[in-house]
Specification:
This is XisI protein. It comes from Gomphosphaeria aponina SAG 52.96 = DSM 107014. Strand 2 and strand 3 form a beta hairpin. The protein starts with a helix and ends in an 8-residue tail after the last helix. 28% of the residues lie in helices and 37% in strands. It has a five-stranded mixed β-sheet with strand order 1-2-3-4-5, with helices on one face. The chain is built from three helices and five strands. The longest helix has 19 residues. The radius of gyration is 15 Å and the shape is globular. It has one domain: XisI-like (TATA-Binding Protein).
């Protein structure tokens, strides 16, 4: 399996595991979105809680230029650490929700 396919699988595993462990109801669902053509991967919550609309991202990853970009992480999990534990080098992980200035102070890639 080449690097790109491994990264896709790692991201899908993280999102699927989190969706499976999420507390959902009959009216609020965890929705997995896997776009292999453009390498965008998301977990969203979608539905209704009584008369209030529930819609929002939980996690969002992209793969760009051979690197995994963590665009959003609305959980307490350190998904960057999970990726490293799966074998992704820190130099292939970008914390996309931090500015490039702030990224230089992390152990991960700046871009």
């Amino acid at each position: 399996m080449d690097k790109l396919e491994k990264y896709r699988q790692f991201i899908k595993n993280i999102l699927t595991e989190h969706a499976a462990s999420s507390t959902t109801t009959d009216t609020v669902k965890a929705e997995l979105i896997f776009d292999h053509e453009h390498d965008h991967y998301q977990l969203n919550y979608v539905g209704w809680q009584r008369d209030k609309r529930v819609f929002g991202p939980v996690m969002h990853f992209d793969i760009e230029d051979g690197k995994i970009w963590i665009q959003y992480n609305g959980t307490e999990d350190s998904v960057a650490e999970k990726l490293v534990a799966m074998g992704v080098p820190p130099s292939d992980i970008v914390i996309g929700f931090h500015s490039s200035f702030k990224r230089q102070f992390t152990p991960y890639a700046v871009s």
